[in-house]
């Protein structure tokens, strides 16, 4: 770290120095560092920010983790707080500012056992019905996009992630040959906006008839946009992953399908319909 870290450095000061070091090294993507910053500023610094790192104890860490558990049933907040704080304090150990990392002996945060991320055919039909019900529902404000059903069918037929599906361009798709090339993903970063980022290795896939039908639906409604995006926004730009995730959370909550996370679409073998 360019900034000297000692035992008298506060947790807030260590966080500032560590995040600056990560940005200068450029080994991690900005989106990852931004998430670290969000976790620290939102979950850790409000509770521990003024404590000198030489005085920081495992008890302090446990109190933060227990507090997060009491506030929310979302165990991911606990897990992220522990992982990010632990990585930050590892840096303080490496620099010689402290001898031991107090996070390493803190309370265990285990992921709850969840249902395997795989859908049966009947459950896929329940998902499709839930999407249609959500689209039919009258809500105030601008009409929601009508692409959720098609996005899900492309995920089911390709095993691609949301970002990879949103990054699809029409010239990545050969409808006649029933093939698609997954060549990029979507990233959103502060200062850069939302953009298409090529994958290190593209993959070409055969796709089933129901996915072809979804793409044909998109094609019949598509406009000539400069991005050539299959799932463009109303303005012709790339859609953000978190917006699609947010819409799916609304749909699954309304339908009682809370256990169906987006990764379930990627890992489900769905027969042609």
Core attributes:
single chain; 273 residues; mainly alpha; DNA polymerase, domain 1; hpI Integrase, Chain A; 3-stranded antiparallel sheet
Instruction: Report the strand count.
Output: 3
Cα Rg: 22 Å
**What's the helix count?**
10
Secondary-structure element pattern, one letter each: HHHHHHHEEEHHH
What average pLDDT do the residues reach? 87
What general form does the structure show? elongated
The poorly predicted ranges are none
Count of all domains? 2
CATH class of the largest domain: Mainly Alpha
CATH-defined superfamily of the largest domain = Intergrase catalytic core
Q: How would a crystallographer describe the biggest sheet?
A: 3 strands, antiparallel
Give me the secondary-structure category.
mainly alpha
The CATH architecture of the largest domain can be named as: Orthogonal Bundle
Polypeptide structure, described:
There is one protein chain. α5 crosses α9. This protein has 2 domains: 11-105, Orthogonal Bundle (DNA polymerase, domain 1), CATH 1.10.150; 121-266, hpI Integrase, Chain A (Orthogonal Bundle). The chain is mainly alpha-helical and 273 residues long. It has 10 helices and 3 strands; from the N terminus they run αααααααβββααα. β2 and β3 form a beta hairpin. Strands 1-2-3 form a 3-stranded antiparallel beta sheet. The chain starts with 10 loop residues before the first helix and ends in a 7-residue tail after the last helix. The model has no long low-confidence stretch (mean pLDDT 87).
